[in-house]
Please model this.
Amino acid sequence: MAGSLAVDAGILLAGIVLLYVGAELLVSAASALALSHGVKAATVGVTVIAFATTAPELFVSSIGALTASDSIALGNIVGSNIANIGLVLGASAVVRPMQVDDDTLYQHGPFMFVAAVALVGLGLDGRIGAGDGVVLLALLAGFTGFLYYKAQQNDVVIPEDVDMSADTTSAGVRDYVALVGSILLLLAGSRALIVGGRGVLVAWGFGDLFIGLTIIAFGTSVPELATSLVSAIRGEAQFSIGNVVGSNIYNVLAVIGVVAVVVPITVESATVSYEFPIMLGFTVVALAMMALGDRITRIEGFGLLAGYVGFLYFLLP
Model:
């Protein structure tokens, strides 16, 4: 038993590492290839990069729904969105209080709220089916169109750690190899995270929904956590906040939308009565913090972290 648990834990850690490396490689390769085909830098920032950083959730949820349980897919997204606000945004604010960018609040914030409300509304009947997935993907198309429109106006800030210089406009074979390699890493990391995480928590008596809400959600949030913490240390608050807001939008509209079209998702009553309200609560609190002050303070960051710890505590059986 102990030996098997140690193996599962090792597989879990390997999965987290592979997801992180795969996401970073995907951002770099996809950005270079898009620029080399004449796509504007700002457009790359809000489409290719935003989607690439959500790739771990997409791969893990899709593979989880197809090979393990649809509860893992839903739990991953709900748990990841809660973790993005409570853990990622909270930890970033503790590291350095963050000034709130008006564009992020007033242009992207409403989409984060709408995405969360749409997920809850579509899941109240206990099932998110193919039709619901199409609705979410339609909202995604609208959001992407809005981003593209704003990008054409050059209103989008590109993170400093993404190379958008003229040198990147000529992509080579290495970039195509890196793109394929990143996808393979994401596939391998997703499978390892599901197998290892499920093995560890099943051995401790936990179910698939709890697994998705906790350890798998944390694993897929590692890229956002690392990126936001580095951005906070650098003083790039607008990217830390924008990273969380954008990720939460894509998690619901892109990931749940795609998974629901492929595999109908069952929504348990406990999710409707507990996890959905918690996700909505974190979303409203985060937007209220951004709207009521010109920054998210360390005290508010500690409050978000405390809320996240409380959420995990009350999940325990």
Remarks:
- The two ends are 22 Å apart (CA to CA).
